[in-house]
Specification:
By secondary structure, the chain is an all-alpha fold. The chain has helices at about 1-20, 35-50, 60-75, 90-110, 120-130, 130-140, 145-160, 165-175, 180-195, 200-215, 220-230, 235-245, 255-270, 295-300, 305-325, 330-340, 345-360, 365-375, 385-400, 405-415, 420-430, 440-450, and strands spanning about 30, 80-85.
Amino acid sequence: MIAIWFVLAAMTLATAVLLALPLFNTRKFKNEIVYALEVYRDQIQELNRDAAAGLIAPDQAKQAQIEIERRILALTEGPQWQPARYPSHGMLVVAAVVLPLLGFGLYLLIGAPALPGQPFAHVADTAASTPEIARLEEAVATRPTDAAAWASLAAGYDAAARPKDAATAYGKAVALGANDAVTLSAYGQALLMASDGQVTEPAIAAFRRALASDPSNPVARFFLALGRAQSGDVEGALTDWLALEKETPADAPWRGILESHIAKATQRLNGGGNGAGGAIATAPPAAVVGPDESDLAAVTSMGAEEQRAFIDGMVTRLAERLAAQPDDLDGWVRLARAYQVLGRADEARGAWAKAAALAPARLDIQLDYADAIIAGRTDVDRYLPPEFIEAVGRARTLDPRNPLGLYYGGLVARVAGNRAEAQRLWQAVLDQLPADSPQRAVLQKELDALLQ
């Protein structure tokens, strides 16, 4: 025990000596400007990043930069070198002797040596936790193989602004079988948030799996387009966002965010995206700032015919490039969606056929191709093209439980006269639909028709 006290005393003395060393500094001058300049340079860099990301208005950024530059100039107005203090012998005695003795006496009076330690990480976790999260964590600890419990915990972490924890929990849920589009798209969003708004490869994989489960999922479609924009493919992003806008209800709460990105992408492609105001935002929708007046003016000033000509020109350039590079899968997908936006169904079908041939193992592409084949047809209850049946067969092989694949499989079975198989497949779809889904009534009507 005595040895421990000697060790503690030696540590205290060493600390006191280290603290007292600066007092022996007998230099008469010291430079205060270098540190201040570094601070101001860091502030200017951070200000430029915020302005480029659209987190601060251009006029506010300009005013802040002027103020920082004024402070930098002010550094040269005062003396660049200031006299340093001479060491104080009284201060040395206080720092080296009196303070350690007072601290030791105070610890003997109120200290608790037997108190167990508490790591900082545990304190931080406790501070960030809530009774609701604690309950969800307890549920996961009780049922560690329950995918729904992990998904609920992930949603709790997400609400508590703990994206890394949310991504980990969503990953557990997905690994345990939660492969529905909602969970997969939420997983992708958590990965994106954990990466400071960057659409990483793991996030892209999650969003693609969400689309394979539900090709109309707006979250996955939006963020996959955002990933294209971040990688420099603004044309591809615009094509995907325009296709999504066409299918988005006018009262959708996130439609304004979508229109903002379309406006910025259009301005950038139209030659106005060199500045920060025309950049494509990289943050998630909740953090995206709407377009400013110059952004909207660049788009709204174009008439309907000009907008159509602009998109037509973009599509023509893409088609010409694909003629020279026919193995570009992403290019064919972009071209197919662009044709769909323009209402050119036959050309869209041809582009989807090229994409489906290049990616026979991509479930989402096979389903999109199947959808394009029967788009606009009114006789699917009597006849289905052979290429549709082949595409559905490939999709059903890739994922036998995919809801859209099950529904298309039911169409094929009905036309073939196998009503029992069609009923079985559509019932499997119905079992996967949420209770409040508007699609339930439509599908139930088709099921009832099979029994007549």
